[in-house]
Amino acid sequence: MPADSAGGRTVYVATTHVDPGHGFGMAAFKRKARIVFHRSQVEEMHRLGHGYIDTFSRLRPELTPMLRSVEFVEPDIVFCDGDLEVDLGGHRAVLRSYGPAHAADDQVVLVDDRVLFTGDLVLAGQFPIVPYFPPFEADIDANHWIDVLDELTSLQPAIVVPGHGDLSDIGAIAEVRDFLTYVRGMASQLRANGASSDDAGASIEAAARVRWPSWGASLHRSSGLAGRAFYAASTTRL
Question: Contact 132/229 with Cβ under 8 angstroms?
Fold first, then answer.
């Protein structure tokens, strides 16, 4: 919301995590709104911000000029422990940190106890994004991600705003949980049977494309990445 359309009220801007697709536009709001970060998001911006620019420039060279122009700005408000409640003038927003799960700095925003902004903890109608790229990025905690989804379900939101995809409801949370638990079980079994991490990832990717055909092919490789993440976290010994 532009500051000049807020009727004189304070405008707050938050993000669900600070990767390029969600947190790289904050400079546009500096001095026009109050930028709010959890402490983990500040740390991740400092730790990975410039690395994201280099990585995404290699992956998408056509985006390099735009990425190189990104300005990282410090937030106006940083909170650490517990929730942060924000009065939106008749509406109440609660910011709550849940990382590490999908990322080290996952955060959700719950408005009026009924509208839940999940970031990439929940995607609707497509494979979840699993950023498991060791050694550069391996902060995902896939087991905790499942626990977080259980907590989000307990909030009973009427509307779920996913990180990507159409507006949805609590069913979207259940779908992502089903996917992650399926991948966890398959990764554990494959590791117990002696499969390598790469072989397990490939098998899981193939199986997931058959199990969730309506999710399309754009992010199907995330299934293999999820398999490798669960494989690495498994307590099974070969």
Answer: yes
Do 112 and 120 meet the contact criterion of CB atoms below 8 Å apart?
no
- Write down how long the chain is: 238
Alpha helices, H only, 60-169: 64-68, 142-154
What's the pTM value of the predicted model, to 2 decimals? 0.90
> pLDDT tens-digit profile of 61-79?
998 999 899 999 999 999 9
Residue 22 makes CB contacts below 8 A (sequence gap 6+) with: 15, 16, 119, 120, 163
117-136 per-position pLDDT tens digit? 999 999 999 999 998 888 66
Give the whole-angstrom CA distance, residue 11 versus residue 181.
Answer: 39
Structure tokens at 233: 């976290």
Spatial CB neighbours of 88, under 8 Å, sequence gap ≥ 6: 9, 12, 111
In the block, tokens 């359309």 appear at: 5
Residue 173 has phi, psi (to 5 degrees) of -65, -45
Count Cβ neighbours within 10 Å for each residue of 107-145 and write b for 16 or more, e otherwise.
Answer: bbbbbeeebbbbbbbbbbebbbbbbbeeeebebbbbebb
Within 100-196, where are the H helices?
Answer: 142-154, 170-192
223/228 Cα distance (integer angstroms): 9
